[in-house]
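Q: Could you fold this chain for me?
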Amino acid sequence: METVVYALPFRLFIGFLLVGWSFILGWKVLFRDSFPNLSGRALWVISFLLFIGIRILYAPDREQNIDTSTWMATALTVGKASDPLYTLLNYSDGRPLAVLPLAIAELIGIPLDYRLTDLIGVLLWCITLWLFGRILKKYLAEEMTLALIWLPLLLLSMVWNDFASFNTEVTGNLWLILGLSGLLRIREKPVWAVAGIGFWLGCLPFVKFQTVPMGVVLGLLGVWKLYQARRFSALPALLIGALLPVLLLTAYYAGKNDLDSFWGDYFSNYFVYSYTTEYSDLSPGERFSPVRIVRYLLHSYQFFLYWIGIFGAILVGLFMQIRRPVLVATDQKERFWFGLIWLVASFYAVLQAGNNYTHYLLFLVFPSLFLLSVLCSTFDVAITQKIILVILGTVLAQASINCFFRKPLDIHPGEPLFQRISAEIQNRSQPDDGLVLWGYVDRLHAYSRRPMGYRNSNAFWVYYPTSTQAFRMKEFLSDLEQNKPRLFVDVMTPRISMFADKAYQFENYPLVKNYISQHYQLVKTIEDVRIFERKPAAITN
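A: Sure. Below is the predicted structure, expressed as C-alpha cells.
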C-alpha cells in the first residue's frame, strides 16, 4: 500500500483533489450562489472527509514524534491499571486530560498503534475545527468561514512531521475552543453553568500546563462579559469553578498523603521547564525576540507559506486599521482586542520554554484565525474576498509543495534493534508486567505492549541534572519499590536513545546502582542494550 500512495501519480492525484476542492471553495467565496447543488452542510462534510481520508491514507504505523509514544505508553498503562484514576493522574507526565482520549480507547479494550492514535488525533481536530467554525459563522458568511477553516485542514492533510502527529496540543486546542464556545454565551447562562465553564477552564493545567496563559485570557473574557451584563453575583461562581479542579486534586492527594507528588509533577517541574534556563540556554530576551519568532515560524519548508499567508494578512489588516479605523461596533472592538490578546498569550505560551518544537506552533492556529476573521468582518466584502483568496492561494501552494515532496517516513536506523529488544521483553514478561526504561526510547512500551513500571515512560527526569532531580530520584526509587516492575532495560545508547551520554549511565547514580544490584539481575545483553529481570525473591518482598 505504501508503494502505491507514495508513487508520484497517486500523490499528483491527491494534489489534484485538493486543488480542485480549494478552487470550489474559493469560487464560493467570490460567488456564493455558485454550485447550487452543494449545500453548506455538504461543503463542510466533504471538506472534513477529504481531510480524514488523506490522513488515513498516509498515516504510518511508525513513530513520527517521540511524544506520541509517551502518550501511548500512558494510555496503555492506564488501560492495564487496577486503579485507572490514580494511574491517569500520576503516570501522564502532568497531563492526564490531554491523553484521556487515548486512555479511554485502551480502557474499553481497543489496543492502540501509531495509525489508530493518529486517527484519534484527526477526529479531535475535526471536532475542534467544526466547533470553531460555528463560532466564526456568527461574524462571517458561511462560505468565508469554511474557506478559513479549510486552511488548517489543507495544511494538516499534507504535513508529515511532528506538527501532524498526535500530541497534547490536539486535546489542548479542543479544550480551549470548547471553553471559548461556552464563554461567548456566558451572559445568558445560569449560575451553575457559569461555574461549569469556570471548572472547564480550571482544568486546563491538567490538559497541558502551556495552555494556562490562554486560559487566563479566556477567563478574563468571561469576567468582562459578566461585568457588561451586570451579573456580579455570577462572578464568584466563575472564580470558584476555576479553582475547584486544583482544590479537588489537592484534597485527593492530601487524602493519599502525597501532596509532594502533586506539587512536583504538576507545577514545580513545569515552572523549571518554562521559566529557567535548565532546559534551554536562551535568555528571556532571546526567547521572545522578533528574530527568533520569524525563524521559528518559517524554519520548516512544510508550513512556512501557511504562516506567511496567515500573519501576512493579519499585518495587512492591522495596518489598514491603523490608517483608517473601521472598528465601530462595540462587539467588533471587543472581539478584536480579545483576539489580539489571545494571540499574544498564545505566542507567549509557545515561546516561553525556549524550545523550537514545531508542535508548539499548533497553539497559534486558532487565535490567528480568530483575529483574522475579526479583521475580515470589518472590511468591505470585496476586500475580504481578496484577502481570503490570497491566503487560500498561499496555503494551497504550501500544500502542493508538501504533496510533491512527500515521502515515506524514514525508518529509524535502530529499528532492527528495537524489534529484537521488544521481542525479548515480550518473551520475558507477561502483558501486565511493568517495564522501566533507563534512557529515552518510549516506543519500546508501544512495541512491546508493556505498561510503565515508573510514572514516566523513560527515566530522563531522573538522570538529567536539574534542580528537581533529587525529587525525581526519590519518586523513581519509590515507584520501583511499590510497583516491582519485572524488567529494567538499560537503553542508554546513542544508537536508539535521545540525550544518551555515558555520564547518564545508571551506575553513575549510587542510589539507582545499589537498588538495581540488590533487586535485579542481568539476563540478556542485545548489542549494547542490557535487560535486567527482577530477582524472584525481590518480586514477593
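A (continued): Residues 454 and 479 are 6 Å apart (CA to CA).
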